[in-house]
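Summary for the funding panel

The consortium committed to producing paired sequence-structure records for every protein in the target list. Below we show the first two records in order, beginning with the earlier of the two.
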Amino acid sequence: MINVTLLKGNTLENNAYLGKAGELTVDTQLMQLRLHDGVTQGGFPLPRGSDMGWDIMLSPEITAGSITLELALPAGFLINLTSNITELLFANVPTGRLVRFTLVFKQDATGGKTVTWGGNVLGNPPQPAAGADAVSVVTLVTADGGATFHVVS
C-alpha cells in the first residue's frame, strides 16, 4: 500500500502558495485539490466528481454588521441573518472570468434584518424578505473582477 501525504491549508493559505510543477495541495476549507505548475500562485482548483461548478455552499458569519464573501473558488452562500448587514464585502474575486454566485438569505426567528448593498452592486438589489424565518435568494454576476456586481435575480 502506498501512502501519500499532501500539503494542506485553508483557502487563503492555498491562494498564497506557489507549488512546484505537478504538485498537489489540499484546500481544507473547500475540501478541494489544487494542481500547481511552478508559476501560478495558488495553482489550479481541480473539479470534484459531480461538483463541477459553483455549488459548494459556504455560510460566512456576520461580525459587527460586516460579512465577507470569499469568491476565490466556486461557491454559493447561505447567510443566516442574525443581525443587519451594514457592510457586504467581496474577497478574492477572479479576474478574466464571468463569476456568478447565489446568496440565500435566511432571517432568524425574529426577522426584519436588512442588507446595506455597496455602491458596486448594480440593478436594484432587493432587501431580504422581512418575516421570521423567511428565505430570499439573490444571484449576482461580475465580469470585471469585482469592480461591479449586477443583480441577476
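The next record, for a separate protein in the list, is shown here:
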Amino acid sequence: MSLAMNEEEITSPSAASVADELLRELGNPAEDAEVAVEPFRLRPGTPVAQQGKSYLLACREDIRKFHNAGFPARAIERAFARALDNVLHAVLDTGLGGAAGKRKTPPLSLLASGGYGRGELAPFSDVDLLFLVGRGSLQAAKALSDQVLYALW
C-alpha cells in the first residue's frame, strides 16, 4: 500500500472550498488573538465551590466556540488559565476573609506549576497546584486548601 498522494488529491476542490467557506464565515483570527473570559462574580447564599464549578463549565462552553471558530490554541489555553485564575482569586479571597482581611490569615502561598503555571491550560487538563505552608499553621492552611480544591473538583 502506498501512502504517497499526488498534488491533486491534497488540494481537491471540495477540501479547498470547505476551507474557504469556513474562513469566509468565521474569519481568520490572528496568531496573537485573545479570547475574552467573563469575570467571576460571587453570589451570596450559594456555596463558593458550587459557583466556581458552574462558572468553569460555562467558560468551557464559551471558549469551545472560539476553538471551533479556529482561534489559535495558545489563545484557548490562556483563556482557560484566566478562567481558573478568576475562580482561585475569589475562593482565596473568600477563604481569607474578604479583601479587607477580616481574620488572621495563615502563612500560605499558592503556586501553580505545569501548564497552568505557564498560563497554558488545555481543556480538561489537570491543574498542578502547590500549597506552601508556614510553621504552626497547618490546620488553617488545610482548611483554606480544602476550599480551593473543592471549588475546582
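Regarding this second record: The mean pLDDT is 79. The first helix runs from residue 7 to 10.
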